[in-house]
Amino acid sequence: MFVDSVSMPDDDLIQPFTIEASGLHGRLVRLGPALDKPLRAHDYPEPVAALLGETIALVAGLAGGLKYDGVFSLQARGDGPVSLMVADVTTDGGLRGYASMRGDIPDGTPSVPRLLGAGMMAFTVDQGPDMEKYQGIVEIQGATLTDCVHHYFQQSGQFTAGVKLACQRLPNGQWRGGALLLQRLPEDENPEERDRMEDAWHTAMVLLGSCRDDELCDPDLDAYSLLFRLFHEDGVRVFPHKPLQFSCKCTSDRMYAAVAMLTPEELDEMTVDGRITVTCQFCSSEQVFDPDELKRNPAS
């Protein structure tokens, strides 16, 4: 393994790498506390938590290959018992995510058709009010989130990528997850080189597919060791990693501003025992407000 001026990475990171023999680019995402915090913040049924964990790992992996200054997000809306699933990551590595449910959750593996049902998936790059948003939307199609992402790449026609996702709850109750992504280079005009890269891509996909879920989620298997196990025969070079952390944007002022926009009638409906309690969808933190004060100081 070739290491370019990097120290041994800790948990919660995006680890970029290349396969030396082919020049294929990839990213490995390892998530521990940064994933455990948002999943534990809610009492999700296990299949929902697992799918949300994969979604958060996916967002981190995709964002690691983008040049942007702002927020990269994924939203999936469906007609199934999970009506909405959201995850986003900021340029500085702040992760968060949540799921909204409206029906009974079936037991078993986190199948996309059984949880989300039919619907749409949107990938968005938001770089602030002064920049135009980029958004790609595709129909939810596939048995797993990995299938849905591959379908998105096929429909968008931007580039070809291979994706492996995993999220598991360890015996100690902690959630862990990971993502492994490989990006295919544009086709070469030389037929011989094109054939060589086709073989290299096929080999890389076989190796990516050999990565087990428990390896992506193993707290005792570091990123370097996993990449070496998978790609050492063709040589693998790693580059400086990017740290990730759970980061929620909720503040008392933001919650107040949101509630203050409601009508007096809506405020009355939210009032219980003389107060209004607002719960953040991402971190489950609560803020309590005086309804009379909100009516006296509505948002302009």
What would you say this structure looks like, in words?
The chain folds into two domains: 2-246, Hsp33 domain (3-Layer(bab) Sandwich), CATH 3.55.30; 252-296, CBS domain Like (Alpha-Beta Complex), CATH 3.90.1280. It has 300 residues and is an alpha+beta fold. The chain has ten helices and 15 strands. The model has no long low-confidence stretch (mean pLDDT 87).
Kindly list the characteristics that best describe this protein.
300 residues, single chain, alpha+beta, Hsp33 domain, six-stranded mixed β-sheet, 10 helices, 15 strands, CBS domain Like
What is the fold's blueprint, element by element?
Layout: E1 2-3, E2 13-19, E3 24-31, H1 33-40, H2 46-63, E4 71-78, E5 82-90, E6 94-101, H3 112-115, E7 119-126, E8 134-139, H4 145-156, E9 161-169, E10 175-183, H5 191-209, H6 213-216, H7 223-231, E11 236-238, E12 242-243, E13 245-246, H8 252-259, H9 264-270, E14 276-279, E15 286-289, H10 291-296
Parallel strand pairs: 1-11, 6-13
Antiparallel strand pairs: 2-3, 2-11, 2-12, 3-10, 4-5, 4-7, 5-6, 7-8, 9-10, 14-15
